[in-house]
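We treat protein structure as text, and this decision shapes the records that our systems exchange. Because each token names a local backbone shape, the row as a whole describes the fold. An entry from our holdings is shown next, in its original layout:
>
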Amino acid sequence: MDRNRRQFVLYGGAVAGASLLTIGILSLPLGLEPSKSDSSYDRLPNTILQSQDGKSYRFYEDLVKDKIVAINFFYTKCRNVCRLTIQNLAETQRLLGGRVGRDIFMYSITLQPEIDTPETIKEYVKVYDVQPGWLFLRGSRADTDMLRRKFGLASSDPAIDADPNQHIGNIWFSNDATDRWAASTPFDSPEEIVETLLSVIPA
């Protein structure tokens, strides 16, 4: 696939077709509180997510701020685009070697938090031999819907919007320090995904 068609890079916080609009925090469980010390907070929510190991994270401050990240959405019962995306990301993680969890971070967020418990996700990641540095995350239903809308995963058709099988499988890459974004499709090869991810890192 032609790289100009496969890859786009966005600056100034206009992410996923300018879908990252200012939106309030819907819920803050576990006693964690956000801060509004950074302007990126207005575009990326600080909602609380739980990893497959049961740890809680603020989405922006703990997972994205000042980091280079890869973000995608999935759910464990998905048998089409999710499977391909996770397989490609697993190979991408292997290609990146020890960088994942050190200077590059990978996050997969479930679209079905009611079904995908930490225990369910733990079993799921074993199938793909996921290595440390790649977090599989879940939030409340309200926060999950907020996040997917932030990343442009919403349809004006209520029937389509309610069907997780219709979700977009794109992988987003961000360098928060430089406010640089790029994306790959699930059909890109792991080598192409690595190339696009590295494009957000200044030479």
Notes: The chain is about 30% helix and 20% strand. The first strand starts at residue 9 and ends at 11. Residues 1-41 have pLDDT under 50 and may be disordered.
